[in-house]
Amino acid sequence: MPSGVDVDLFTVDGPARRRGSPHRIVSVGQPGPGRGFETIVAALPALPGTELVIAGGPPANRLRLDPEA
Question: In terms of Cα–Cα distance, which of 46, 6, 4, 44 is closest to 25?
C-alpha cells in the first residue's frame, strides 16, 4: 500500500496550538535504518524546546536522546 493521506477523511481544519507553545515535529512511519529518523533525532539538540512524536512501529520501541553523546 503506498503512503498517503485520505484527504476526504482528513482535513487541515481543526484546533490550532497557541502561539508560544513548544514546537513539535511529528513523523509517521516505522523507525529503522535508512528511514531518516536518525536525522531528526540528531537535529533535536539544535532545536531547544522541540518535541519529537513518532507515530508508527511497535509500542515497545523507545528512543532516548543522550545529551552526552
Answer: 44
- CA torsion, ordered 13, 54, 3, 34, to nearest 10 deg: 150
Other CB atoms closer than 10 Å to residue 27's CB: what's the count?
Answer: 15
Residue with cell 507553545: 21
Q: Rounded to whole angstroms, how far apart are CA atoms 44 and 29?
A: 18
Is residue 32 within 8 Å of residue 7, measured between CB atoms? no
Set of cell numbers at residue 57: 512501529
> What predicted TM-score, i.e. pTM, was given to this entire model?
0.54
Residues 6+ apart with CB under 8 A from 26: 53, 55
Alpha-carbon gap, residue 27 to 32, rounded angstroms: 13
pLDDT tens column, 3-48: 677 888 877 787 777 777 778 888 888 777 778 888 888 888 898 8
